[in-house]
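Field reference: "sequence" (input) and "structure" (output). Example, DUF3558 domain-containing protein:
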Amino acid sequence: MASRTTLLATIAAGALALVLTGCGAGAPAPSASGAAPEASATADPAATATEAPSDPEAGALSCDTVLTDAEYTRLAAEGHEPRDDPFLLGPAMERMADEGALVCVWNKPNSDVAVWYARLEVGDQGQAWLDQLQAEGWFEDTHQGDGSYQAPADYDANYQPSVLLDSGVLHFVGDNRLLREVRELQ
């Protein structure tokens, strides 16, 4: 067990070193509005394929790339491991999974302590998703002030998940703090 944790920490540290040395330098810079510019239609496909996998624009997102390096390091240090057969946290996450969301769950072995994340591109249907969640009792989390919505208190006995709609993508987390660790929302 200790060697797996050490290995995960080493991998996370290596990924951080690659990012800090500029391997992701080919990523487009954000515009004045904070949004990343669209990729040029004349982009060299070979150059795109060699960009750092931690850049969400570089290719397919996965449970190994959606969070910050610091969060992966924290998860490893706390003994959380990715699950291949994730338990979905309630009906909102289940609906997202049914629609093809990326679903990620990390948990401590032999424990019910888990970290949940789901990501679904909803495009112009984002407001419809939020309307449905509000009809189910989800409410805007004005305490966080980040535009996220929190599940009603009776959603789960131990967790109160949050969702955030950003640029046509719905993000689901088991705990609102994780939204600050989603690489795409940085």
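The domain at 69-185 is CATH 3.40.1000 (Protein Transport Mog1p; Chain A).
Residues 107 and 113 are 6 Å apart (CA to CA).
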